[in-house]
Amino acid sequence: MEKISIEAETITPFAYHSLMVQNGTATIPELISDRAICFGLALALGMTQARTALPPKDYYTHISAMPYRASLFTTDKPELLPPLICRLNLDAEAGLQKKIQDVSKKGNLKDFFFIQEVPPYQKFKGVLFGFEGFNPFEYVEKDEIVIRVGLHQRGMVRLKQMKKNPDKEFTNVRLNASTASLFGKKLKVDRYLLHTLQLTQLMEIEEASDEVSTWR
User: Fold this and answer.
1) 8 Å CB contact between 160 and 42
2) Residue 147, number of CB atoms within 10 A of its CB
């Protein structure tokens, strides 16, 4: 497999509904998930179909169609921006049906809620594993690729391939045991963050590559 060490730098803030906080949600600031990288890259490379609505969620089928897999992208200096207030316009998006009115003051349908975003200029490191030698940077003949991540794909992240011999400190990565389970693989979980984010123990890049090569 092609092992591509990548530095990902946030260009604009992004958020996910990850952690419950008072009156809203906060993003897990220490990582960008492997699935966010995979789907963001697929979109940037033109591997997705134009649709008027989102297709049914089927991570196994969708990830299986991609010629690559990814490790988790992590940072040693996680940061979050101050809480940002958001408004859900129920009048325009859902109408004023009684069932909507009854829940409009609580849960994810609150009129006003807070989010906390990852700031710009945050740097994450991870590895992309390309099947049959696939390298997205060679595919587009560019040194950098910008992908979209986060809620409504509002965040922008610049991917840049690191040198063939990256600094000695970047020799280990974590995989997502939740993604491994899609392919029938059971990996030991070091940290459970969310159902879709289950961090394995640190692995040597070569060891991680051997494992990911079976995710087909």
Assistant:
1) no
2) 24
**H or E segment and range at residue 38:** helix 34-44
* Cβ contacts of 175 within 8 Å, gap of 6 or more: 34, 71, 72, 187, 200, 203, 208, 211, 212
Quick one: which of 1, 12, 3, 74 has its CA closest to 37? 74
Instruction: Give the global pTM.
Output: 0.88
- Cα 125–175–12 angle (5° rounding)? 40
**Domain locations along the chain:** 2-81+117-212
Q: How far apart are CA 136 and CA 141, in angstroms?
A: 8
The number of beta carbons lying within 10 Å of the beta carbon of residue 150 is 22
- The strand pair at 112-116 and 123-130 is best described as unpaired
Closest CA to 10 of 63, 60, 79: 79
| Residue 113 host element (H or E) | strand 112-116
Q: Which of 132, 143, 131, 118 is nearest to 6 (CA)?
A: 143
154, 65 contact by CB (below 8 A): no
Mean pLDDT of successive 10-residue stretches along the chain, which has 216 residues: 96 94 90 98 91 83 97 96 82 62 61 89 97 96 96 95 70 97 97 96 96 97
